[in-house]
Every structure is written in structure tokens, then in C-alpha cells.
Amino acid sequence: MALPARLTAALGQHPDDLTEDDLQRAVDSQIPESVDLDWKKDFYQGTDAGKKELAKDVSAMANTAGGMVVTGVDDGKQDHAHTLAPFDPVPGRGEEWIRSVLANWIQPVVPNVGVRPVKSAVHEGKIYWVLTVPPSTQAPHAVAAPGNDYNFRVHVRHGTTTRTLAESEIAQRYRDRFQAASDDVDRLNQVADAGFGYLSGYLTSTEHGGSPRATYYPGWISLAAVPAVRGTYPLTTQADRNAAFDRFFKFAGEGVTTRVQPDRPVLVGRRQVRFEGDPTGQLHQDGAFYAALPTYFQGDQFDSDGPKRLSQRGIELDLVALVQSAAAWAAETGAAGDLMLSAALHRFDGSDDPVRLVVSEGAFQHGPLMPLPATPAHTTADLGAIVTDKREAVVVACALVSDLLADMGAHQPHVLTPDGDILTDRLNADFRQALTGWTA
To answer: Mean pLDDT, to the nearest integer, of 310-331?
Structure first.
């Protein structure tokens, strides 16, 4: 979860991993409250006033810079961690109650709020509640009682306190949200264009003599991705870039297939790591991603002069692996929120001749003759969901490939389903063996 880096530095531990010992050290160090940290002695009451206070605290964090609310730590009215004050769990007011309040009292709902009890080792049976709130791309979030949409307030953190925004400030927040969405689209186009330019240069170069690589690999599929809440990953030195490459190589090997694992050497780029071969791509320090894989054109065994054939199943499985790898890299940089994705098919042999989609080698019916899609396919997905659930990666890849294949006359994907399944019975032995991250 992307949270202010200051919190981890101040607490000596990522907020998701805090223990009572860490909270005690915060007391000993008198760590102060701030725009991203709120110590609270008492847990929220079950009244409307208590629910409103909970919603206000969380929405204010999301509307500002993100942060953490900890109940069970008394600030002693001195705006710093003063003493530990764990309390008995309240029946009926656990995690489910907290999430219900946030869902019903905040509009729009703040995504990806972490809700975690921390057990006390010193005071048996007592707990703390740690709420982690990422910065939100859907701000401003307003607080209103259920069914009372016309009487709402928008709150932000102001130093160690929370204040209510004036109408003019709310209007500016909405303008900021719309501008951020436009900026995300621009950034996605920038990443896709830069990646495609790099891929083109790599495939058409004759710098080392011989035929350009495009002669042997004329067809490629690419994926560009940009997270709504940008990450930060140091890529300044060679050691930084090598470390980033090693981490990505590990993540790419944990996907549905290992096709997105890059080859060495690690190549330098401005605020990015580059790699060439199969795949070719770029990892950006803000969590943006570009990678491309060759899609193998095959000649017709019965007609050597006939149109090239393109494996539909290969495209579908490659997109799943690319989506998983893009999400894994974004999460590694600390990015959060939505992930905007753009997938495209490319041809580098100078031909615009139509190709024929083939769902399997033994299929009697093949698709119509169609050129590769002229425009990319786009979708937006929840980054956290893709990282934690491989079925969500299939859902996202299915949406992208459905649009690409529709431009080529295919009614639907052959092996991916909108529900997140891979129809392994439609795969031959080679494809099944390639599914290292999926039970065939």
C-alpha cells in the first residue's frame, strides 16, 4: 500500500507491520501527530456521532496525503504519542463494523483502507486498531449520514487537526481530480509511445551487421501500464537498476507463464530500467511499465504463398502474463489505486497484409482475413486486486484481448473468460506446460 514514506522512517516499520513494541517505541520517542498520523486514545462509539467521527478521520486522510489512524495510543493532549491505552474489543464493532461505516458514511468510498487489530502482549485481551489510508485519486471524499446526501462535508488534515473545506475549495478539489485523470491518460500515452519507439529501434537496427531482428520476429504484442497513485523506486545507480531488475525478474516468474522474464544485461535509461530480447521493455521509477513479446506468425502449411496465421491462444496467455508483471512492478514501487492499461499488436515487416487468427492447429474453422488492429485496447483495473488475485489478472487480460480480437473478426477470446477462468482443456500440451502459475 502506498503510504507517506515519512511514516515508515518515523516508526521504523511499515505501518502494515506495526506491533505493540513498535507503538511503545513511538511513545518512548514521543513521535508527534502530523498531517499523515493521528493518535487516538478511545475507540469510536457506536452512535451516529461516533460513526461520523470515524468517517471524518479516514476521509480527511484520503483527501490530503494518506496516512494512519491508531486507536489505543493516548496523545496526552500534547499532539504526540504519550502513553499506550489498549482497550477491550467491543462486541459488534470489529473490522466488519468499521468497513460498513466507511462504506455508508463516505462518498465516494475510500478505496483500499487497511483495517487491522493489533493484540496487546502486555495487557491480555486488549487490542489497538490501526487504520491505514492511502492517498486517493477519487478525492474529494465527503462525509454524510446514510440517506442524507444533501448535507455533506469534505474534511482534510491540517497539521495535527482536521478542518472542513469551504465550497470554493471543494470545487478546486474536483477540478484537480479531473485534471489528474487527464494527466494519467497523457502519461499512459507517453509510456506507450516511448516503449514502442524503443522496441522499433531494437528490432530494425542493423548496427551489429546482419539482418534486423524484425526479419525473424515481425509480430509483437505490447502492454503499457500507469498507476493512478505513482510509486517511487530509486533507479539512479547501477546497483539500483540491478536490484530493480532482480526484483522484477522474480515477480515475472510468478505469473501464469514465465514469458515476461527478461534477459540480461540490465540497460540504463533515464529514471528507468531497460531490457532487450524476448521480452523487450522498460520499468519506470514511478511504477509505469512497458513490455512487448513476439507473436509468432506462421505460414500456411497448405499454401506457402497464403496469408500468415496468428495464434489466438498465445496472444491471450501472453496478455495475462503481461498484466500480472505490470501490476507486480507497480506495487513494488509503492504505487496504488487504479492501473490504466493499453495493449496493442504490432507488425515490423513493412507489410499491412491481413492475417488469419487461428484458435488451434487442428481447428477446422479459422477467423476471417483481417489486418492487425490499428488502435490499442484500453482498460482500467484495481492494482491491488490484480496483485492479490491471479483471476483478476485474467479478467483484465480478457477485457483487453476481447477488444483487440474484435477488430480482427473474433467474437470472443478462446481460452480466457470474463469470470477469470482459463479454459485449460482448450490448450495443447505445449501451452499447458507453459502454465507455471496456473493449475492445468
So the answer is: 92
